[in-house]
Amino acid sequence: MGWLVYDSIFSVINEAEAIKKAEKKVVEKLKQIRKAEVAYFNKYKTYTADWDSLVTFIKEDTIYTVERTEIITPRTKNDPLYYTRTDSVRIEEDTIGRELAIKKLFPIAEYPNFNPERLPYLPGRDTATFEIWADTLRKGQVLVNAIEVVDSDPRDPTRNDNDERRVRWRLRFGSKYDATTSGNWE
Question: The organism sits in which domain of life (predicted)?
């Protein structure tokens, strides 16, 4: 009888540890996907919901290094707008280099085992992929780009998108309703 009590408690503790480790891996993968999607957005001004496009972008595309300089021209007293406007600001951009996306986003020193082909797949699984959605949303009179990437098969059976607490939803970043790339683990 004592063994059954011990075993039941120990199995619950082991399961909680396994869930914690699995979710940590999922969060790391979601951060990688977010990093790639933000770089894709910066280059193409839209997110992609196509895994093949994202993987091809990482493997073959380039990211430009841009230097921005802000030039401020103060208004003079003889300027008729001196009392009603602020200084004039002009921003100049200069492309100073370019690098392959995979080298820029996922350097070997930081990501030694990174494989862009495995990016869509849940950690430790060969068939289950993250759910990905990207589209534009109307916010007031403006169309904004939005993205949502969700763990399609959570290890924790208590994670539910109908829970009132967002932190108990399936692990994700972004939203189908807001223009954000924040994750619910943050």
Answer: Bacteria
Query: In Å, what is the CA distance from 73 to each residue of 70, 85, 87, 88, 92?
Result: 10, 12, 6, 5, 13
Q: How far apart are CA 101 and CA 64, in angstroms?
A: 9
Comparing CA positions, the residue from 43, 182, 161, 47 lying closest to residue 101 is 43
Give residues with Cβ within 8 angstroms of 26, minimum separation 6. 122, 123, 151, 154, 155, 171
| Residue-averaged pLDDT of the chain | 88
Quick one: pLDDT at residue 69?
92
Q: Is the pTM of this model over 0.85?
A: no
Give tens-digit pLDDT for 54-113: 999 999 999 988 898 999 888 787 877 777 777 878 899 888 888 999 999 999 999 999
Is residue 149 a contact partner of residue 174, using CB atoms and an 8 Å limit?
A: yes
| Contact between 29 and 113 (Cβ < 8 Å) | no
DSSP one-letter string for 128-146: -B-EEEEEEEEETTEEEEE
Answer yes or no: is pLDDT of 1 > 80.
no
Residues 6+ apart with CB under 8 A from 87: 72, 73, 74, 75
Helix (H, G, I), strand (E, B) or coil at 59: helix
